[in-house]
Write a sequence for this structure.
């Protein structure tokens, strides 16, 4: 076999292998649904080698408080190999519109980090739904953190709130996984 | 001869045990996979939900609630922020 023939065959084989690797990477995710009272609100795909922590509607009493109150389900995702990247989702009760969600974002800021400073606001589309996004930075546990908080309009009187927290020193390669999570977001009608 | 065989068997057993121990120590501990640090963000999200005003609770529990409720989940770490009391 002549050299050009071998070269083109090798290139074709490598091309197919490359396609399979890319396709495998694109589909190697696990779908998850966020539910409220058993009704699915949205799906996201969890990238391979990411961990999921899911709570449920539960009663909570912080230390020093005497009132027990219900809290909604929180879904948290983080890479298995990195403890400094976190993505969370919640469908807060009583928040029906993106405008009402703005108050929610103001309330949750001090809970997530200190000295939060917003550097960017934008309106986006996530999973075909209108989303209001704010990005910025702050501090938590003595470390600098970057955040992106997103309010996503859901069908009916609901919104989803999501926040991504990146502590200083995070691996930029993990941004691909985060983008894949939001790219897979699909609201349930 | 028998003495030598027994000695060889011991050596083989010891070697096998050493390899097994080394293999086990190389496994990941399923309970320590780096999820401690970001737990604070998870708990903070829950505490925000605790402190924010909720719609009024329904007077009666919904029908069909389970008789035996599941065990209470672990208590999360304390909140780092407490808003002023509700009006």
């Amino acid at each position: 076999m002549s050299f050009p023939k071998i070269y083109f065959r090798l290139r074709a084989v490598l091309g197919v292998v490359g396609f399979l690797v890319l396709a495998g990477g694109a589909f190697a995710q696990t779908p998850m649904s966020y539910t409220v009272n058993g009704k699915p609100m949205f799906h996201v795909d969890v990238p391979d080698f990411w961990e999921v922590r899911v709570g449920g509607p539960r009663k909570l009493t912080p230390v020093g408080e005497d009132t027990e109150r219900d809290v909604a389900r929180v879904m948290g995702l983080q890479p298995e190999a990195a403890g400094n990247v976190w993505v969370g989702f919640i469908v807060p009760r009583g928040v029906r519109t993106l405008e009402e969600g703005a108050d929610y974002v103001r309330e949750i800021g001090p809970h997530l980090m200190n000295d939060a400073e917003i550097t960017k606001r934008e309106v986006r589309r996530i999973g075909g739904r209108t989303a209001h996004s704010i990005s910025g930075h702050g501090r938590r546990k003595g470390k600098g953190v970057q955040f992106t908080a997103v309010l996503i309009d859901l069908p009916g009187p609901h919104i989803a709130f999501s926040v991504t927290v990146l502590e200083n020193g995070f691996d930029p390669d993990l941004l691909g996984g985060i983008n894949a999570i939001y790219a897979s977001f699909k609201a349930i009608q | 001869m028998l003495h030598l065989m027994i000695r060889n068997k011991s050596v083989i057993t010891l070697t096998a045990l050493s390899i097994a121990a080394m293999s086990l120590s190389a496994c990941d501990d399923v309970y320590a996979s780096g999820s401690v640090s970001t737990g604070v963000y998870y708990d903070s999200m829950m505490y925000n939900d605790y402190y924010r005003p909720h719609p009024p609770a329904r007077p009666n529990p919904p029908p069909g609630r389970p008789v035996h409720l599941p065990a209470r989940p672990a208590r999360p770490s304390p909140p780092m922020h407490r808003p002023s009391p509700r009006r």
Q: What stands out?
A: The CA atoms of residues 49 and 81 of chain A lie 8 Å apart. The interface with chain B takes residues 51, 53, 55, 58, 60, 62-64, 69-72, 74, 76, 78, 80-86, 88, 90, 92-94, 104, 107-108, 110-112, 114, 140-141, 163, 165, 167 of chain A (CB under 8 Å). The helical segments of chain A are 3-27, 98-112, 175-183. Residues 12-27 of chain A have pLDDT under 50 and may be disordered.
